[in-house]
Amino acid sequence: MADRANPIRFGILGCAAIARKVSRAIALALNAAVVAVGSRSLDKAQSFIADNGLPPATRAHGSYEAVLDDPDVDAVYVPLPTSLHVRWAVAAAEHGKHVLLEKPTALCAADLDRILEACGSHGVQFMDSTMWMHHPRTARMRDLLSDPNRFGQLKAIHSIFTFRGDPDFLQNDIRVKPDLDALGALGDLGWYCIRSVLWSADYELPKTAIAHHGCVKNQAGVILSCGATLVWDDAKVATFHCSFLSNQTMELCVMGTRGTLHLSDFVIPFEETPANFRLATDSKFKELHIGWQPLPSEHVISTDLPQEALMIQELSRLAGSIRDSGSKPDEKWPIITRKTQLVLDAVKESIEKGFEPVNITG
Amino acid sequence: MADRANPIRFGILGCAAIARKVSRAIALALNAAVVAVGSRSLDKAQSFIADNGLPPATRAHGSYEAVLDDPDVDAVYVPLPTSLHVRWAVAAAEHGKHVLLEKPTALCAADLDRILEACGSHGVQFMDSTMWMHHPRTARMRDLLSDPNRFGQLKAIHSIFTFRGDPDFLQNDIRVKPDLDALGALGDLGWYCIRSVLWSADYELPKTAIAHHGCVKNQAGVILSCGATLVWDDAKVATFHCSFLSNQTMELCVMGTRGTLHLSDFVIPFEETPANFRLATDSKFKELHIGWQPLPSEHVISTDLPQEALMIQELSRLAGSIRDSGSKPDEKWPIITRKTQLVLDAVKESIEKGFEPVNITG
């Protein structure tokens, strides 16, 4: 079992801003440790180690290859631009490293499949870095959505994730560059919306995606703002909206026959702890329709560790089980990733086809 | 000026459940009074007066015509099924009565125009019964949406209004009957969503409506659940969802370049007073993206009178000004009503055309 004394040893590929958050998370996790940082520049790797208070023994490497060649690295965190994911995630798997891959995981499902196949054939654990999946709030909400007496049957979902990119972001960030993160806001933000929709539907794939008119692209054709409707055979329906052009917003509203779940910070909680959500069950009006009865209930969930550290712990638990008990990789995580990517691909295709419906096939 | 001593005298056409709430509102308003109730059955009118604690002097009439012929009635409240609106609202105007008309105001804009023309040519005030427009919370939110430093430029809107009809409702309510309220959930609930979208956009009409796939109709073809995307020329975008099939939910989220407005009870506040909403401005993450800074601010708005009484007071103020000062009817209210109906018509047409885009023209 991976623990403090015998942790899963992480190497970080690249010094992206998000790697600072994840390196802290690895340090907080009880069964993981950062042992190496690789960058195209040895100086940058050394600075990253020093600036982020990593242990002095952390090895700086002047290339990504060197991290993969490092025999004392068990797992890698890959926050590189999406266009580089296939190359480096596949290489990591081939070197026997477990893979924690930033989202969007790939430019398309075919690329993702190359990554998942490499992980599968080399017996390493794959997980995408969708942190909110690992918050205890998420598990508590899932329990309630599964309760027929508190939520009933799922009918509709709406999800929003936006933030306003400043002029520098909209000009220079990798997320608006067609050769780096070509999926733009759909890949960076819509990823979370789509995941929240699938999570709400207990990962039942919708049948059809229809992108919304009003999609905004930059001059290079990268999506800055878009949305879509997702439809299931039983007439469940979901909509989402993602954008680099509006104030930071993270709404999730899930409606069942008997209940409504709502929260305004589903991707990153307002505060590290506690985190809240609201559940309404069998909402009615009072006599004369002059107010609600019952009122929605507020739920407050505390956590000892932030969601990103819990994500690292979960990956390390699975990697430890492979290392110590000869277990096979857990297929739950790659399956969820692949469904998310399939829906994302369908939304992108719908945008490209002028907002026509696109079938989603597994 | 209409006041307690010299109020606007209301007649109520029909004894619908909602008329109980509005008769209380008329009694609460400081410048209005219920003086007559008409029903197709004199008994029902008498029972309504007794059951709702109306003054003993309130006149019961055994027909709608008799209310219109009552010379001591200044204004009528019309909660009849939508299919009867043209007939009775036009007749009321022709009898010189001001008209407070339940929503949806008409089955189509052409019908509404007959009503508005009758009101215009007879110099009576028209207002639809969209109560939340009159809550002081609404005015406060409008101020904030107009503040470039707190909200910025409007970019996106999402609105939801659902409730779960029980089996009896889904079988027998006038709102699922093609000969009575043929617009179904779109007319009953989507009306509020569309109004909230127009309100957010300061009544700038969107250019195009595209209904969402996943619309649910009953066997008679009446809409039970639907949604739509609305798009403006400047790429503002709105989506809404309305349904008789999900737990009662009323979400409004309005996103600007600098701010996000959110509330979960926009149609009928959770409690008569106070009512809340949340505004976030310039939302960012803390260092390392481990929380938000600043947090959204909670706003609490109290009101001396419920929103429906304030609606009655506003109509009575305008009616009193016509009565006492020879003013012309205020055109603001019919203009807002007509825009709402135009968008509703376009969404309905889009559904009928298989979710094709429909231009909205004034």
Automatic annotation (TrEMBL), chains A, B:
Residues 147-261 form the GFO/IDH/MocA-like oxidoreductase domain. Residues 8-127 form the Gfo/Idh/MocA-like oxidoreductase N-terminal domain. GO terms for molecular function: nucleotide binding. Belongs to the Gfo/Idh/MocA family. PANTHER family: OS10G0403700 PROTEIN, PTHR46368. This is Uncharacterized oxidoreductase At4g09670. The gene is LOC105041684.
